[in-house]
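tool_call: predict_structure(chain=1)
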Amino acid sequence: MSVPFIPGETVTVPKITFSDQVRLPASETALIVVDMQNDFVKEGGSLVVATAIETVPHIQRLLESARAAGVHVAYTQDTHFEGDPEWQIWPEHCRAGTWGWEIVEELKPQPGEVVCQKSRYDGFYGTWLDTFSAACGR
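tool_result:
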């Protein structure tokens, strides 16, 4: 399939085979739970995504399966401090050390799981998360 990308040019998109089941080696796989924090998920949070709470039971089941299989588990945690320039764009949220900053209780990290604090949307930019995920594949 070809699709327009730049006026006058096209990009060829390869056919992707879909499968009902994907098997990955647990020792080379990581599950990353992204920004499941009270300010984004729970009633009373400062920047709640209305449907985020509905994802919690699904993520709980995924975490249970991943942990049972020995998959590496990591979390990103949006983290901001006094005067953060992002608060000029969005309401104040995920201030370090507050209830809103904490990962929701239902999904809290277990001993040995890692939490990568970040101050941008991208959990890989300017953090050690890329190094962690690459190491999982070794």
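agent: Residues 27-126 form a domain with the Rossmann fold fold (CATH 3.40.50.850). Proceeding to next step.
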